[in-house]
# Entry
Amino acid sequence: MKRHMLRFPLLPFLAALLAPAPCPAGQAQQAVTVDCVVAVVGSRVISLTDVRLAEAFGVFDTGSETDPAKRRRLILEKLIDQKVVVVLARENVPVGADKVEKAWTALIDRIGRDEARRRLVAFGAESVDLLPYIEEKLQAEAIIESRFSHGAAVSLKEIETYYAETYAPARKALGLAVPPLSEVAGALESEIQRGLMAERAAQWIRNLREQAEIEIRPDCLK
# Structure
């Protein structure tokens, strides 16, 4: 299993959290990993193990996608996006060790420590091998946040349209009461701004990808 360099010392808490359990007497833990290069972003390689680890530990939200091939391709695209952001944005937005620890703890709590340890053993990995995935994801998110967190101006007309065409119908479909616009206008404005931020960020990432040297080898995902 390859090791990744972190920008901060490994926290003792994380190092000990998923220490491998002792093997039963007479039994050796074995892990067989068949690896290949799935994509190359500039000089950075994304391997099949990278994709499978991110999948196994739920590093990315893949929604309700149940097809394994489509889910892995979606994860690969997310890995490419974040590498493009971190490499090409050339912005120094630090991610503290405490934030990585918090994200790590949430991930492990979601899976369960025993199950997380079992999955690590299956990959022949250690807990430290997961930290770079979490750190890079947080780094990319921090860069995007720093660029697009300033909310775009939203007009009253846009809020009224969103209320009538999106918010109210969604509430009614769920059998929920629809509060008057005056009570939810502020919340709807924030929701619209988040949507605009996501659209602008997605377009920015697409532009970065056009500038980057990206080679994808889809056969490796099969």
Summary: The first helix runs from residue 12 to 17. The beta strands are 37-41, 44-47, 214-216. Residues 17 and 80 are 29 Å apart (CA to CA). The chain has eight helices and three strands.
